[in-house]
Automatic annotation (TrEMBL):
Gene Ontology, cellular component aspect: fungal-type vacuole membrane; late endosome
Similarity field: Belongs to the small GTPase superfamily. Rab family.
Organism of origin: Candida tenuis (strain ATCC 10573 / BCRC 21748 / CBS 615 / JCM 9827 / NBRC 10315 / NRRL Y-1498 / VKM Y-70) (Yeast)
GO biological process: regulation of vacuole fusion, non-autophagic
Domain of life: Eukaryota
Protein name per its UniProtKB record: Ras-domain-containing protein
Molecular functions per Gene Ontology: GTP binding; GTPase activity
Keyword Heme: no
Pfam families linked to this entry: Ras
InterPro entries per record: P-loop_NTPase (IPR027417), Small_GTP-bd (IPR005225), Small_GTPase (IPR001806)
Keyword Amino-acid biosynthesis set for record: no
Keywords annotated in UniProt: GTP-binding, Lipoprotein, Methylation, Nucleotide-binding, Prenylation
Amino acid sequence: MDTETPTFKVVLLGDSGVGKTCIRSQFVHHIFTNAYKATIGGDYLTSTVMVTRRVTTDDAGSNHDTNDIPQPQTIQKPIKTHLQIWDTAGQERFNSISRAFYRGTDIVVLVYDITNYESLLNLKTWFKNFMDHCQVPHPGVIVVGNKSDQASDRVIDLEEIKEILTLNINSGTDSDINLNNYVNWETDAFEICCKKLDLVNKVFYRVGEVGLDLIEENPKKDIVAFDTIDIGAGQRASKCFC
């Protein structure tokens, strides 16, 4: 793998009010607020994830006899990844603006509200519009159900989403919106509460893993480097509703 730090463009998509802004704010700023303010258009923040990977190296340690041939070793190695995380408007009137931000996306995170069945069904439209505009043949896709703390109001179980989404999304003939072609349902479907940093971190750790998988599948993929923002100084609370 290239020694330069890889940067992945990540876009959060889903209906207004499902918690996209809160999820990003929790991950980047470690801040949560119940206040709601709709996102207009889109913007991005950056952060870093250290992903542990199994890598093969030559065993050239000093304890070997000079005649010994170095033997390959498989070790666990932390790989630094930069994430450029785009938050997009979930309201229909801003769709034409938000679509401008889809181009070149490496990983899309589809977010729904476990207390709102329609927000899950609407992922069909979100994903189709994304694929129509991202200009990436095979992006990584992660599905996240938010508001797991509101269990008494739940209308969707995690075990149901594969069947619901594939029946809904695969009803057409366009193979580009067949989620089974993009999602590993065992590893890429999450249920979280964005109030809890550990749950949010698991999502973005997986985002980093998927990004590195994309590089391994396509070694010629461009790796972009840019400075990350200082997330420790003077952060404001993001306005969102979980």
